[in-house]
Amino acid sequence: MKSKSAALSALLSAILLFSCSQGKNVELSLTMQSGYGPFHSGLGGMSPYSEDADNPWKNTYLKISKLPEGLTDLQYGDIETNIYQTVYQAYLSGNITKDRYEELQKSWNWIPDTLNLSKTPVKTKIAFACGKDPDGILKIAVDANNNLDLTDDKLFTPLEMMSVNEDANKDSIAMANAVQVSFEIFVHDKTVPVSAPLFVTYYNQFDMLMCNFAQYATTRFKGVQIAVSSGFTNLAYKNIQVAFMRNDLKNGEKVKGEDLYENNEYIEIENEIYRISGVNTGKNTLALEKAGLPKAQLYSTQAGYKSPPFRGEEFTTNSAISPEDLKGKYVLLDFWATWCGPCLQELPHLKELYAKTDRAKFEIVGIVGDSPSDALTKTIDRHAVTWPQILSDDANKITETYGISGYPTTFLIDTEGIIIAKNLRGNELEEKVLSLMKE
Predict the structure, then answer these.
(1) Same domain? 55 vs 202
(2) For position 19, what pLDDT does the model report?
């Protein structure tokens, strides 16, 4: 499965904004909490610096004054807390080129919010160094006080999480092994020193160091406690997850995927619907916008909401396709890519389902992203695909409209254009569709 770190596109944002009235905006102050809360924790890689002269990031490297002593095979690098602030200040200082800056904006689908970014440098990076001690054991030092001197930081052996018992409370183990690290954020027009627990782990089979920040945020609204995660691999709070805090989650239990919400999705509080506008790091707030329409009239990629509109051309016939044209039928939107192994494995199941269903009642529309047209032609021919396919491109932006972050992703839509299920595949998908056909 392929993952991208892009947020929902500006096109989807515009659609969702159109779905809301001029309603009431709500700004909720956030309080930072240690740990992972109701969220599953992710890990990010820790890559030592490369001395490649062509490395576009080379001028952004930290200038570490002192490295740990007594280690062989010594390597060093940094851990990023807010790549957006880092890139912005690197551009202003000339440490990355204008072309690189604009390229990153495009690839990240990022429009810099200069009102909430500091023009003067902020300490967003945390230095680390690693090497082998005289016994050949991997040791690491993290610049916990952010003074660029790693000789005053304790050397430790990173925990190998693969060796931890599957039934163990991994959150508690991570917190017990975390290092409290210092860095800076830009909030309320000031650069402010802060700290967070940093957990470092080692994957021996891949010879890879990985880490995360054990920190999330909470707020309250109408008596309901809300938790917000930045994904734990950074603290930029750009691509967030939102969940309602629950008292029944114990011993490391987590909120289920269907109970997690992202930017531009909707949450319901006291029978009212609010769109998640995102986190404003400059104010340290979660922004919500009250919807001015009932649920069945709002566009979202969530179950229970209208599927966002799009228009594309069928790949082999060039005929126009849109959800409006398919009303009255159940529709499976299948987002896939020609190089995606799980997607190709699913094609025989889709062929079987397509043969069992009536075209007057059910249709499949493949939306192919990140794939060249010649590869799609070969895949259609090789697998004898007969249902409509649309190549998502810069013109129709369908994958961006639906905020696709991985393949395969599916949406099952009812006869009125309402999403009734997401990411059904194989037997589960067939059983669901066939049961709908009998109704």
Answers:
(1) yes
(2) 41
Q: Which of 285, 273, 196, 210 is nearest to 240 (CA)?
A: 285
Residues 69 and 204 grouped into a single domain: yes
Angstrom distance (rounded) from CA 355 to CA 353:
5
Say if 430 falls within a structural domain.
yes
HSE, side-chain direction, 13 A CA sphere, residue 299: 19
Q: Which of 198, 213, 228 is the last residue of a domain?
A: 213
* 227 within 8 A of 233, measured Cβ to Cβ: no
DSSP letter assigned to residue 325 = G
In which band, very low, low, confident or very high, does the pLDDT at 54 lie, cut at 50, 70 and 90? Answer: confident
Give the strand order in the sheet containing 330-336: 389-391, 362-368, 330-336, 409-413, 419-422
The predicted model gives 133-147 an average pLDDT of 97
Residue 360: count other Cβ atoms within 10 Å of its Cβ: 8
- How many other CB atoms are there within 10 angstroms of residue 15's CB atom? 20
Nearest to 330 by CA among 404, 420, 403, 399: 420
Q: Do 236 and 385 belong together in one domain?
A: no
pLDDT score, position 89: 98
Q: DSSP state, 39?
A: S
Domain that residue 430 falls in: 312-438
Measured distance CA(391)–CA(315) in Å, rounded = 6
Per residue in 58-83, pLDDT tens?
Answer: 999 999 999 999 999 999 999 999 99
Q: How many domains does the chain have?
A: 3
| DSSP sequence for 401-421 | HTT--SSSEEEEE-TTSBEEE
